Amino acid sequence: MGPVRNRFKAAFWGCFLLCFGQMTYAGGLDQTTFSPDILFEEGGVAELRAQRRSADVTGALIAAPTVTTGGVLQDRSTVEFGYKQDLTDRLGLAVQITTPYAARTRYGQAGYPLNGTDARLDSRAVTALLSYDFSNTLFAFGGVRLLQSDGDIYVSVNAGAPNVFSYRFTGDSDTGLGYVLGLAYSRPEFGTRLALSYTSPIDLTFSGQEGRVLGAAGATPTLSDTRFGVEMPATLSLDFQQGIATDTALFGRVQHSRWGGFEIRPNLYPAGALVTYQEDVTTYDLGIKHRLSASWGVSASYRVEPANGGFSSNLGPIDGLRAFTLGAEYQGGPYAIGFALTQVRFEDTTTALGTTPLARFDGNRATLATVRLNYRF
User: Fold this and answer.
1) Paired sense of beta strands 335-346 and 202-214, if any
2) Do the Cβ atoms of 130 and 91 come closer than 8 Å?
3) Sheet harboring 356-361: ordered strands across?
């Protein structure tokens, strides 16, 4: 390993603990946000990360509070992979396979107007990055990002005319192409790092089958071929770290995602847009990490995502959150294993049918458990 990259590594001990903060609930359909941290690992690295998300999200009709939704957001498991190696003393290569966007929503409570609605959206992204050390303090990275998505969505609405219909879409997207650009600044003698990252928007074209039945909820639509486009949003993020004592550092992240104006608008969906977001989303993370010994490290972090207000999507009834994460890592030889537990509290929000308020979602929570395995070579 070259001397410049070693100096970066000395300033960035324990970036694994920070990586956990990028695998959590966030604005829009975000599941895992881009992080450049793997580029700052020393030497060659292969890593596997797995996370289990368990949500308790329920709501109640505004007009009849005794009519509830039941659990809406379904439990999910995510597995991701990362690989990095040095090509020269100054040039590095990294590949990440992630699930950047996803949703799993189900309404199964009898009497609720959306009872029978069941929606799944998944995605896969492959990001290939090159990094270059210009000097002892300046580091640049960039690359390409391939994104593909698929979904299976059934919507049943029985809320009085004209909001009575059944709709179904099943299909997948083509592979969209985007890019990543970033700069990092380091002062190892002060334990300082700043990393600015930009991920471009990516255009996807979904192909599949869709159909609708107007005037009947719970019906089975006749499906026909369909195509429609979706633009996934750009993001801009700033990661930082500052040493404050021996083996102790503050770290944090600010990310702005351009979700404002986003929509999924199939051709036959009776209510126009299936999913829409009116505002951009900004997320703030702040944490502290401490190395207990040559083998053990711990961290704690806090995330805030301010609510935007207005109506939330029925297929994702959350708007803003606060989350607290505790993490620990053990390193032995070339191997490392880490664990993190996150408790999430969602801000209260309201859903609607059209412009008519439908339900209140108050006091909802989620728990996330994460494991990462790391091998250096």
Assistant:
1) unpaired
2) yes
3) 60-61, 356-361, 349-353, 311-312
Read out DSSP for 180-217? EEEEEEEEGGGTEEEEEEEE--EEEEEEEEEEEEET-T
Please state, in angstroms and rounded to a whole number, the distance separating the CA atoms of residues 360 and 250: 37
Can you give the C-alpha Rg of the chain in angstroms? 22
**Residues 277 and 313 sit within 8 Å (Cβ to Cβ):** yes
> Is the CB of residue 84 less than 8 Å from the CB of residue 45?
yes
- How wide is the angle at C-alpha 208 spanned by C-alphas 206 and 209, nearest 5°? 135
Quote the pLDDT of residue 109.
93
Inter-residue contact 161 to 155 (CB < 8 Å): no
- For residue 306, what are its two tokens? 């301010």
**DSSP-derived secondary structure letter, 21:** G
Quote the tokens at residue 368: 């996330």
Query: Could you tell me if 268 and 293 are in contact, meaning their C-beta atoms sit under 8 angstroms apart?
Result: no
Q: d(Cα 334, Cα 81) in Å, to the nearest integer?
A: 17
Identify whether the C-beta of residue 81 lies closer than 8 Å to the C-beta of residue 47: yes
Q: 89: part of which helix (H) or strand (E)?
A: none
State the Cα–Cα distance between residues 280 and 315, nearest whole angstrom.
18
pLDDT digits (tens, 9 = 90+) for 214-245: 999 999 999 999 999 999 999 999 999 999 99
pTM (two decimals): 0.91
**pLDDT tens digits, 314-368:** 999 999 999 999 999 999 999 999 999 999 999 999 999 888 999 999 999 999 9
Element (H, E) at 132: strand 118-133
Let me know: does 192 contact 243? Beta carbons within 8 Å. yes
C-alpha closest to that of 148 among 181, 121, 179, 112: 121
Spatial CA neighbour of 58 closest among 116, 118, 112, 120: 112
- Residue linked to tokens 């998505």: 149
**Integer Cα distance of 158 and 362 in angstroms:** 23
Protein fold of 3-376: Porin (2.40.160)
As a whole number of angstroms, the longest Cα–Cα distance in the chain is: 70
Relative to beta strand 365-376, strand 224-232 is unpaired
CA separation for the pair 62, 71 (Å, rounded)? 17
- The domain locations on the chain are 3-376
